[in-house]
Amino acid sequence: MSATTGIGTLTVRPLDPLRDAELLHSWVTHPKAAYWMMQDAKLQDVEREYMRIAAHEHHDAYIGLHEGRPAFLMEKYDPRYVELTGLYDPEPGDVGMHFLVAPTDRPIHGFTKAVITAVMDELFADPRTRRVVVEPDVSNKAVHALNEAVGFVAEREIDKPEKRALLSFCTREQYLAARGVAI
């Protein structure tokens, strides 16, 4: 993926659990990443978690780059096998997604919206993807608004082992309509 936006070029590369662990540790333990639920994680915990993801055939992680520098984390997963197993009835073409924007001392207006747009573009670049599924914490109002802005529609609250989540879906058509693209 490479997307040139009003804030610059965004690209993704596969995450390397060993090489990227220290960087990820600084991101997921930052106070702004509270909803990532790794605030107290040690470096080895982060390394172990992303090695587990790298080894999983239905879960992938990527480092997002802004102008070539690490700036966000993207995960995609098959909700039939990861995160949402048994919590909803998956449809063919469903893809689960997580993203985390790196903490920064110099925020760029519109950056997070550009990141979620680039992530959605990447997911929908695969013609097999019919719908993106997310399950953020019900209390994460900022991400709910962001999800809605790119076309997600909340379906219902669900109980996951680690949180009460808002199960939401975004079809390709909903995403394109939210972006103002004629279908």
What structural class is derived from the secondary structure elements?
alpha+beta
Termini, distance in Å?
22 Å
Strand order of the largest sheet: 1-2-3-4-5-6-8-7
Strand/helix succession: EEHHEEEHEHEEH
Helical run tally: 5
Unreliable stretches (pLDDT < 50, length at least 5) are none
Radius of gyration: 16 Å
Q: How much strand? A: 25-35%
DSSP summary, beta strand count? 8
- Major pleated sheet: 8 strands, mixed
Fraction of residues in helix? 25-40%
Task: Please give a quick description of this structure.
With 183 residues, the chain is an alpha+beta fold.
Task: Give the helices and strands, then pairings.
Elements: E1 2-5, E2 8-14, H1 17-28, H2 43-55, E3 59-66, E4 69-77, E5 94-101, H3 111-124, E6 131-134, H4 141-149, E7 153-159, E8 164-171, H5 172-178
Parallel strand pairs: 5-6
Antiparallel strand pairs: 1-2, 2-3, 3-4, 4-5, 6-8, 7-8
Helix pairs in contact: 1-2
